[in-house]
Write a structure and sequence with these properties.
468 residues; alpha/beta; nine-stranded mixed beta sheet; six-stranded parallel beta sheet; 15 helices; 33% helix
């Protein structure tokens, strides 16, 4: 049923935080764009009636900005609500009733993974799962074994082609467009291999801390929260080979090949840090060893990338909020008195989208001296740009799995980080507002050092910037 459009959207956890912050705004945007006109059924344990559910949706949307009443009225007419326990067959009989004539629904499990088993079992028992898709939210497991168990639960009731594992990062336009930038421009592809690339860095910095989510974060940590999923997705988009076709399976095949070529990370190739003050956060254990910062070094043992070190770091309470990629190229022979800096390609994913080529230019003086410049491209964005969740829900309901993680991808990603998660390696303190523990430069340091993103550079296509 991969090409059949879903004729109903059912989301479990409809009274929760994710629905309030992300799902209602995405559904509203789809109605506004004209891509959603099917029944939308919210399911939750909260004892609401339909009017209360509609009021919750309105509250969510008004918190995001001015409300277009005509659009909301259209969405409101699509809404249905089922209140009940996820263990009670009566809840799923009520869902079946609300589905009416729909025969190809999409079920979004915006609920804790521990509830997946009960829900998919009840969906099958009530004959709600026939012809359906299921969409599940990350985190998809906490390690390799738990991911395999979750996959087994879902695959016992749904075929892989009808399982859509959401990583909202893939819905972001810069990540989504990464493949286009690579494979539509011969300029980039001409140097995109080990013969020209010296190293690759991926940084995801967050200026804020755990923001009241201490209990959740203390059970998760940076490796699980963003490196194993978000940043591995960025890595595979950056380094995959061109797919033979642009269908979802061909693209996902190439991404899995990248992960298969990466050896498990060892403790010698990782540095974990924790910002000072983290243990004072509500819900955090007094003796917590959970990392709020992590840096890893790995290598892709493939024909294209063998020998190119890849450095990934992520952390909270860093100097800026920014996600950026830096690809450093190998130095040319040094013909001039001043040692040239390496050329680079820079891709900023958040908070804005930037692509830049860094190179050396002769200085204005008469001497043969150089200075680094960047040629910067910033794509235009407009009010019609899709947010991540809108794009992902639209694609899932259309049966397009390109932006979703496949079973083998999820398990390969966990395989790579599993040894480090179980090793209980040392955690170093760092001051909030710095770039992580001081020990990073001795333990995990790229050639020519780390590139620290700056997010306040002026707009310009010929802006001279500090060399990366």
């Amino acid at each position: 049923m991969s090409n059949i459009q879903s004729d109903a959207f059912v989301f479990f956890g409809a009274s929760g935080d994710l629905a309030y912050k992300k799902i209602f705004p995405a559904l509203y945007a789809m109605v506004k764009r004209g891509t959603l006109s099917v029944p939308v059924i919210g399911v939750a344990r909260t004892n609401w009636n339909l009017d209360q559910f509609r009021a919750r949706a309105q509250e969510s949307l008004e918190a995001n900005g001015p409300l277009d009443r005509a659009v909301f009225d259209k969405l409101s007419r699509l809404l249905h609500y089922v209140s009940g326990d996820y263990n009670d067959p009566a809840t799923f009989n009520a869902v079946r009733h609300e589905l009416g004539r729909a025969c190809s629904p999409a079920y979004y499990l915006a609920i804790p993974p521990v509830l997946f088993g009960n829900v998919v079992e009840r969906l099958q028992e009530s004959e709600c799962s026939k012809g359906a898709r299921v969409i599940v939210e990350k985190p998809f497991g906490t390690d390799l074994e738990s991911a395999r168990q979750l996959n087994a639960i879902l695959l016992s009731k749904f075929p892989e082609k009808d399982i859509f594992r959401i990583d909202h990062y893939l819905g972001k336009r810069p990540v989504h467009n990464m493949l286009y930038a690579r494979f539509a421009n011969s300029l980039l592809e001409s140097f995109w291999y080990r013969g020209h690339v010296e190293s690759i860095q991926i940084t995801m910095a967050e200026e804020f801390g755990v923001q009241g989510r201490g209990q959740f974060y203390d059970q998760t940590g940076t490796m699980r929260d963003v490196i194993q999923n978000h940043l591995f997705q960025v890595l595979t988009n950056l380094t995959m080979d061109p797919p033979v076709r642009m269908d979802s399976e061909s693209i996902r095949d190439e991404k899995v090949k990248v992960l298969k070529a990466i050896a498990p990370i060892t403790t010698n190739s990782v540095l974990r840090g924790q910002f000072r003050g983290y243990k004072s956060e509500k819900g955090v254990a007094a003796d917590s060893k959970t990392e709020t910062f992590a840096a890893v070094r790995l290598e892709i043992n493939s024909w294209r990338w063998q020998g190119v070190p890849i450095y990934i770091r992520a952390g909270k309470c860093l100097p800026v909020t920014c996600t950026e990629v830096l690809v450093r190229l190998r130095r040319p022979p040094r013909l001039f008195p001043q040692a040239s800096l390496p050329n680079h390609y820079r891709l900023r994913i958040t908070p804005d989208e930037v692509q830049a080529l860094g190179m050396m230019m002769k200085s204005p003086s008469d001497e043969m001296l150089g200075e680094p410049i960047e040629m910067i491209a910033r794509p235009e964005t407009g009010p019609e740009e899709m947010e991540a969740y809108e794009r992902l829900l639209h694609d899932a309901m259309a049966g397009d799995a390109t932006l979703f993680a496949r079973e083998d991808y999820v398990e390969e990603a966990w395989r790579i980080v599993d040894p480090v998660l179980k090793a209980n390696s040392q955690v170093y303190d760092y001051e909030p507002g710095t770039w992580g523990p001081d020990q990073i430069e001795q333990k995990i340091a790229p050639p020519d050092g780390w590139h620290n993103p700056a997010v306040k550079a002026p707009v310009g296509v010929e802006k001279k910037e500090k060399a990366a």
